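@channel sequence for tomorrow's demo:
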Amino acid sequence: MKPRWRVLIVDDHAPSRSSIVEAVALQGGEVVGHGSRLEDAVPLVERLQPDVAVLAVGLPDGDGLEAARRIMASAPCPLVLLTSRTDAAVAARAVEAGVLGFLVKPLRHPELGPALDLAVSRFREMEAVRQENEALKRKLESRKVIDRAKGLLIQRLGLTEPEAYRRLQKTAMDTRKSIAEVAQALLLTDGLGQPRSAR
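structure tokens (generated this afternoon):
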């Protein structure tokens, strides 16, 4: 049976770590690994690919906020911060670093499940938005390339805009490529065929 979450813990405090392990198990999750130092965080996330990571604020070689920042920069995953204090400065730094949930020491077991679920849910929403934005960006870039290729065909062959588009569309169908790929190839070929301007 698939665990509710696969959890990574980065905390050097043994009693705190044991408490999280117990709470995760009680709520149907599985702890897939744990570390005790800031330097452990990124390699463990990259190797284990957990569903969510729980990071203690205080670590012997730094803090959980720096660990969060490094994880989000190189191997993003949902992050929950384990802290004994929840002042505004820590919360602001945590959000800036990419933390999506908080657990307060001493850990109360019933609080763990909602915190992890919320972090995982928020992360999925953010990933969906990011992917939509990337798709939109690619679409806009493709449109620019197609417009430039149409302009080139209009200029070189005296076609109308609809005729230029149909020419690109037909070539795309014949070559089983996207219209953007055909347009890019046309622009590249034209660029290579241009005589160099005199300096």
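heads up for whoever presents: The chain has a mean pLDDT of 90.
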